[in-house]
Amino acid sequence: MTSDLPRDAAYFVDHLHALALELRAAVGRGVRGSTAEELSAAMGDRGGDTIYRLDEHGEGPLLAYCARWGEDLPFLLVAEGVEGGGGGPSVGRVFPRDADRPAFTLIVDPIDGTRGLMYGKRSAWALFGVAPPPRGGYRPTLADIAVALQAELPTARAALADVLWAARGEGVQAETHDLRTGAVTSFVPRPSRAATLEGGFAAISKFFPGAKAAAARLEERLYLELLGPPRSESPQVFDDEYISSGGQLYELMAGHDRFLADLRPVLHDPGEASSRLCCHPYDLCTELIAREAGVIVTDERGAPLAAPLDTTSPVAWVGYANAALRQSIEPVLQRLLSEAGGGRRETEAARELLPPSDLRLPPD
Per-residue DSSP letters for 202-249? Predict the structure, then answer.
């Protein structure tokens, strides 16, 4: 068995793999058979985010598979877009419905990266994590996830799609599926071994209006302190923002990105009338895979992620491709966040970050 789960890791990997392929097939049919305008039609707000027509192509196969799986072993499903039964959307749904005591928790984001996929810009990802069930007053957290799998949901033009999975302490496994021939090839994810950000890809997420200015100023200060003033017109660091948390973790695992941070909950202005969209636990339910691949993932304070497995809790996270990058970046990032009030989530102080036109290193 794995941790406090009722079956061994292979049992859960087999189910997650089968579920992921069913979901990928259904989403693929929807993507190929619909226009961007049809896929991007907003259907309402559920489970922590806006639900688009594309999302509905993932919900059907997810719920159908869960109904079958629940006949073998009862469990609690916590998923984006899936309303709970009697306890509110953040509680989840038990399969089968009449089960008194679920044996495990399954947290899912059926389509992480909907916005990019529905316009044919970039792959989305199906994310799955397995943790022990709630017991008494305790609810499991991201730290309790013992088995995870993420599957690429490619655009209509793609010929290949990857699937990666891990069980705690057992390393990561991955395979590439040829969507034309059905061939499956195993591969080993290899995060970057670079000890500097210079010449590589890195970013502090600034996907949407609301915290863009604070994130950009923080990013400029961070790079300036780490790398010094630019020595030429050639860029020191490249920015490629992937609007998918699972996709960002994949980029770190694949060696494409060296450092990523999504600090939207920290940089959000609490004085605003409404909150801004940010990561939720289902967006990061596969961070176990990244850690098993050698990526270092923390919260904004440098601690392991430990948000409760629900659909509403805001989550900030930081990812480093290797320990050397963490050692050089984390102390500077922590200090800049502290100076800006980020550690206390006082975003008004974040506005005190120097504007890009007046960047300078602090005195010794």
Answer: EEE---STTSHHHHHHHHHHHHHHHH-S-SSSS-SSB----S-HHHHH
